[in-house]
Each structure stands twice: as structure tokens, then as C-alpha cells.
Amino acid sequence: xxxxxxxxxxxxxxxxxxxxxxxxxxxxxxxxxxxxxxxxxxxxxxxxxxxxxxxxxxxxxxxxxxxxxxxxxxxxxxxxxxxxxxxxxxxxxxxxxxxxxxxxxxxxxxxxxxxxxxxxxxxxxxxxxxxxxxxxxxxxxxxxxxxxxxxxxxxxxxxxxxxxxxxxxxxxxxxxxxxxxxxxxxxxxxxxxxxxxxxxxxxxxxxxxxxxxxxxxxxxxxxxxxxxxxxxxxxxxxxxxxxxxxxxxxxxxxxxxxxxxxxxxxxxxxxxxxxxxxxxxxxxxxxxxxxxxxxxxxxxxxxxxxxxxxxxxxxxxxxxxxxxxxxxxxxxxxxxxxxxxxxxxxxxxxxxxxxxxxx
Length: 359
Description:
Blueprint: H1 2-19, E1 35-41, E2 48-54, H2 62-65, H3 69-72, E3 79-87, E4 90-96, E5 98-100, E6 117-120, E7 129-136, E8 142-148, E9 155-157, E10 178-181, E11 188-201, E12 207-215, E13 221-222, E14 229-232, H4 238-247, E15 254-258, E16 267-276, H5 278-287, E17 310-325, H6 332-338
Parallel strand pairs: 1-17
Antiparallel strand pairs: 1-2, 2-6, 3-4, 3-7, 5-6, 7-8, 9-10, 10-14, 11-12, 11-13, 11-15, 11-16, 16-17
């Protein structure tokens, strides 16, 4: 949700500035009720959150006024928000959403840490289409957006471990293809690898569990709709050791060990692949900074409104994970502890840690 919020903030601030750039706006005659909403559904989530803002107009600094709660949020009794389920075009379920302010928001232009969210605890059906309907109580006007659901999928390769020493005769890293099955209704994917480790203070023996995450894809990687399996060929496992070295500094006060995920010894890597729907992809494409000298951009929204007064998007996503071992068979731990890339970072063998136990 944080990643989406960053993209959305730029989008919404653009709307505010568009509404506030006149020298002497007529605050009564020129104001138009504009609804901005976004939400991303996941069939495996227990709770689904939706953000709903309203546009505002001001003679003052729009960036400052965006931090005023009353400027950006509708009064809760002025909207009726529904999540509806459809199967083959027929409405099968629906519920009116409640609100919460219990999820804190990071600092930024909009009110924080308190924020207003609409939420649903509906168990989602991967075969269904879902529609978010926003009804303005004072006029009865409804705006809506809908999305199909990204289905479950899984990683095929790597399986249990990865050889992080794969290199050619000149010691250049060799790519190891990542293979994963297609997710229903997915348009693009993002791949992340996280390394989990422990820092233990040499004097106090205090322990901190930490992690380092690298995005393996340089940008969203598009799905291959004609194939049941996707192959991402462009990542070299050995390069991740370089990333660890770039992310950590030597610290003589601590000793470092690999961490054990869920108590499974030597499992210290977690691969996570995110799949997103076409609606999400189109929104990101429209919101990403343009590198071209041609600056014309369209404003994407999948909200349907009679008066074209609703913006934002409703989309879906899903993810799968695979935990990997720091296998000693390929001397991976030797490379971490004594190798030329990470040997200076103070890692010791996991078997020497207080967490190791004979199986």
C-alpha cells in the first residue's frame, strides 16, 4: 500500500494544482465535486482498504491546504461506499463498507498519521469481478470502478537453494533463469529477493534481526499470455553478494549470522513475486515520469461516472513466495563468510551461532 500511495500522491497533487492555478478562482461557481479513489484487491487478504478523497479549490497554497483533513476527506455520512461481487455479469454479493482511522499514514502532503480508510472483510472469489461503488448521498449520484482478480500462482525454479557462486571462467556472474507459473489475469510481474541476517552485539549478546531486499526486475516485467510459464532470464545470483556488500558496513562491535526463516536452519533467502492486473499496470504506466521529450500524458482512470467527475483506479494483485537455503554444497556460506565480496562484513558460520542446533 505504501508504494501505491507514493504514486497516487503525485497524481492527486497534480489534480489539486490544476484546480488551484487560477489567479482569482470563483470558489462557489467554479467548484465541482470530484471524487478520487484507489484500491488494490488481493484474494488472499483478510481485509481490503480503499482510499477516497475529494477535490478542493483554494486561493492559498494547494500543497499546504492538502494537509487539511476537511479539504481532502468527505464527511463519513456524505458517502455510501459498497463493494459488489459479479459472476458472469450478475451481481451475487454486496456490502456497505465501514470506515477506520486505525491504520497510520506516513508523513507527506496529506493529513498524517491519522487517515480515513474504507474497508471490507469480504472473502474474495478468484473467479469473480468486483466493483467499488461510491454513492454521493446528497445527490444520489454513483461512480464506480471494477476489476478482475489476479489468481494464485507459484515459483518453479529456484526450488530449495541457489548457487550464489555461479560464474564463468573469468569469474563473471552467470545468469540463472527464474521460472514461475502464470497467474490468471496478471498483466505484469515484479520480483524481489530478501536476505535475512542477525547482528549480535559481542559484549551484551543483544540480538537484532535484519534484512536486505533487492528488486531483481529493473521495471515491471510483462506477462507472456501465450505461455503457462514465465521465464525471467536476467538475474545473476552472484550479483546479490555484491548488493549485500553495498548495503552493509563493517561493524567491529557485532558478529553477523544468517537468519533462519520460520526456524528452518539455513533458510535465509525469500523470493517474492508480485503479479498485477491490467488496471494496475495501465495506471502505473500513466503515472510514471515520462522520459520522452514529448510530454503529453493521458490521465488514466477506470472509474465510470456520468459527469466525468471521478478519478483513480480499482485493481488487483497477488504474490507468491519461495524460501531458499544458504546451501553449503556450493560453498555459498564460505563465500559469505570468507569470500572477496563480503568477507570483510563480519559474518560467521551459522553453525557457530547460538541459534544453531543439530538436527
